[in-house]
Each structure stands twice: as C-alpha cells, then as structure tokens.
Amino acid sequence: MEQVSTSQILASQWQQVRTAIRADIGEASFNSWIKPLQCDGLRGGRLHLSAPTRFMCDWVRSHFGDHLRAAWQGLDAEIDIVDIIVSRPLPRGKNAAPLAPPDSGQPEAAASQPASFGANFDGHDLGSPLDPRYRFDSFVVGKSNELAYAASQRVAEQPDVKFNPLFIHGGVGLGKTHLMHAIAWHIREIDGARKVMYLSAEKFMYHFIRALRERDAMSFKQAFRSVDVLMIDDVQFFSRKDSTQEEFFHTFNALIDQKKQIVLTGDCSPSALDDIEERVRSRLGWGLVADIHQTDFELRLGILESKLRQAGSTQIDRKVLEFLAHRINSNVRELEGALTRLLAYASLVGRPITLELSQEVLQDLLRANDRRITIEDIQKRVAAHYNIRMTDMHSARRARNVARPRQVAMYLSKQLTSRSLPEIGRKFGGRDHTTVMHAVRRIEELRQTEAVLAEDIEMLKRIIES
Ligand code: ADP
Ligand code: MG
C-alpha cells in the first residue's frame, strides 16, 4: 500500500517538474532532452532519473541538472541529489517507463517526425516546416538588413555556390528566420529537384541523439549529407564539448567539399560564438558573414505599412503608425505584436484606432521600449546595492555572498531587458543559458518566501527603471 502511494506521489511530482521545465525551456528543448528521461525512483533524498544514452545523460546533467534539482526541491525539500544515469536499452520503439507520467495529450514536435530512421527515409522529413508568410516579397528591406537580404537572394537564385557558408547573425526578432525560410521557399519554387533542408540547431541535436539511440547514425549521416542546401537556424544553441557539434562539423565539411550550399544563423558573429569550438567557429566565418542591425525608424514604418497591407482591411492613421515606429524600437517581432494587438482590440471593442487608444492598449509594450536598460546598468546597480565588485558579476566565484547578487542581476536582466538567455549568460562571464534560466527560477521562488529579498528586488527595480 505504502509503496504504491509513494510511487504515485513521485509520478505526479515528475509530471509537475516536467510541466514547469517545459514552460521554461520551450517545446523543442523539452522534447529533445527532458521528454526521453525516465524517473526510476527515490531513495534517501536521492532521486534517480535515467536517459537512453551516455551522451544524453551527460548533456542533461550539465545543462539541466541544476534546473531539475531546483524544480524538484520546490515540491519536495528532502531531495538533495538528482542522479542521472544511462538506462538499460528498451526494446525499439517502446518508451514505456515504470513511472512514465500520463500522456499530456499535447501535440509534440516529435510526433510529427518519422517513427524511426529506416535506411530509406527521405531527408526532407528531418527538416522543419516552412512558414508560408516568410517570403522575400514580405520582407521589408532597409539599411540594417540590406546586406543579409541581398546575400540571401543571391544564394536562393544561383545554383552555383558563391558564398559558403552564408552566415546571418543579429539580435532576436530581426528577421533571420524569415530570411532562411524565404531562401528555402524560393529554391523549392525555382528548382524542385534541389533538396533543401531547414531546421534549428536544437532539432539537429535532437535527431542526432535519436539516431544514436536507435543505433542508426549511418542513415542520419546519409540523410544530412545528401541534401543540396542545408540550413541550420540558431547555431548558438550548439553547445560546448558535445558530440553533436562534432557531428555537425563533419556534415558541414562534407557538404562544403561537395560544393553544397550551407546557410546558418546565429545570435552573434561566428567569432563570438563562445560555445563553439575554435576550429568550427573559424570555418563558419569562411564564407559570407552578413549581420542584421537594429532597425531604424524608416524601416519600422515600412514594416508596419507592409503588415497592414497584408492584413487587408483596416486603415490606420499615419500618425499612429509613426507613433508606433517611433516608440516600439526593440525588434520587429514586438512591433508586429503591437500592431496585431491594436487591430484585434479595435475590432473587438469597435473603436477607431487613435493615438489615444494605442497608448492605452500598448501601455506595457511602450513602457518596456522606453527604458533602454542595459545589462551593465543592472550589474552596476546590483553590485553597489550588495556591496560587491563589478568583476564578481563575471567571475566564477560561487560563494553565496556573490553568487546570490549575481543571480539577482541575471533575474533583473531577464525581467527588464529584452535580451535572450544566451546573451545574458555571455554578459555574466560567458555562462550558459541554462545557468541564467536556473537563476531566474531560483530568484522567482525565493521572492515568494524571503521578504528581504523581495524588497531588495523591488527597490532595485525602482532604482534601475528611474
Ligand atoms: P529572428 O529569427 O531574427 O529572431 P524572425 O525572422 O523570427 O527573427 O522575425 C520576427 C518577426 O518579425 C517575424 O514575424 C518576421 O516576419 C518579422 N520580420 C523581421 N524582419 C522583417 C522585415 N524586414 N520585414 C518584414 N517582416 C520582418
Ligand atoms: Mg529565429
């Protein structure tokens, strides 16, 4: 009896932990790394999880270990160690685990993948679907993105490979993925025989691990090496010391040798990709590196006009568009979001879109865009508040009196800037994005229970925002 209820509690905790982590790390990472884990039991404060391969085990341990522990401690303070080991192989295709949580019923990315890699599977299946809206003709060109746009068009139009690889980099929401899809669409249209494969770096890793798990690395290699154009989005997510990076490098070299086109994107230039091994990094910069800069007013206005035309119906006063272009200057995704929200709101409440309405409906976005707070500002304020040195923000010191303020600074960076987790990690002495994520969660939790910390944070926020 006792036995049963303990394992039920554990199963339900495991489900809660998975749900929390999924919300934090997103569907793709979740499916690649957390979903395949099994919960094997709890003995004396030691929780046992298992992963299907040695590699996966190492990866989960180094990238999500802290996260898993923290999430679990939130539910059961007794747990102080989370052990991740390699599980005994399951029969092919069977994922049933002793404590497998009930199926959440949510559609999962993995479900759309081929059930297994037969030697004859088609390379197209490995790629991700393309967004029909992301075309060249829906991309608005301005000074900040003209090089990336021109290079993308060139690559899409000419079968003879000139720039290899084409590496596009820039901040979040500035159109990298849009351009990638536009290239893929264009090539498919003008030459259906050319095999184009588009996928994210995370998806690449996922497929690779899966191939290893199913002992089918050969067909994985063949599938990737038989494409004519390989496009990998967000390569900053390839992580250090990992065999997927190695595998990517081999694929990359093989394709370059065969004069097949490669297109990559990242959130910074190849030379600044700290998590990527030096020899890989330098090769990434061999072709053409095109960066997308922050948008300027003209471009933002152009994008708004273009989106409005696409949306069809509503007329909006040019004054309102100018206002938006002026005030929402962080990135294109937010700008689009603002316009969508405004159109939806106006149509729901049946009010004309005026300056006043825009201010009212977009209050939070406008405020967020007004304060151009930098991570350095935050680090300085937090360091001063806790009386530590600025260098401690970057250092590897783990002493609590510096580690906690550092976590607070990471938390505030996530809250008060639009920087991505990897970007924040880099500003804190080159830490991994999962470290940042862990810090954010940790502070989030502590705020609930520690009044002093909650006050500190409120005060720091006020100082920083003023
Ligand atoms: P990234 O991959 O760089 O983070 P995305 O390509 O996902 O950014 O772009 C975010 C959103 O902004 C997408 O909906 C995209 O269509 C839109 N967008 C970005 N730049 C432009 C542009 N120059 N013209 C039109 N839409 C754009
Ligand atoms: Mg993108």
Structure summarized in a few sentences:
The chain has 466 residues and is of the alpha/beta class.
Structure commentary:
It is a single chain. With 466 residues, this protein is an alpha/beta fold. It has 18 helices and 8 strands. The chain has helices at residues 2-34, 54-75, 146-157, 176-190, 201-213, 217-225, 243-257, 278-284, 297-311, 318-327, 332-349, 355-361, 363-370, 375-386, 400-416, 421-427, 433-449, 451-465; strands spanning 38-43, 46-51, 81-86, 166-170, 196-200, 229-233, 261-266, 288-292. The strands form 2 sheets. A 5-stranded parallel beta sheet has the order 5-6-7-4-8, with helices on both faces. A 3-stranded mixed beta sheet has the order 1-2-3. Strand 2 (46-51), helix 2 and strand 3 (81-86) form a beta-alpha-beta unit. The longest helix is centred in the N-terminal third of the chain and has 33 residues, at 2-34. The radius of gyration is 24 Å and the shape is globular. Mean pLDDT is 84; it is low at 89-124. It binds adenosine-5'-diphosphate (ADP) and magnesium ion (MG). Magnesium ion is lined by residues 176-177, 233-234.
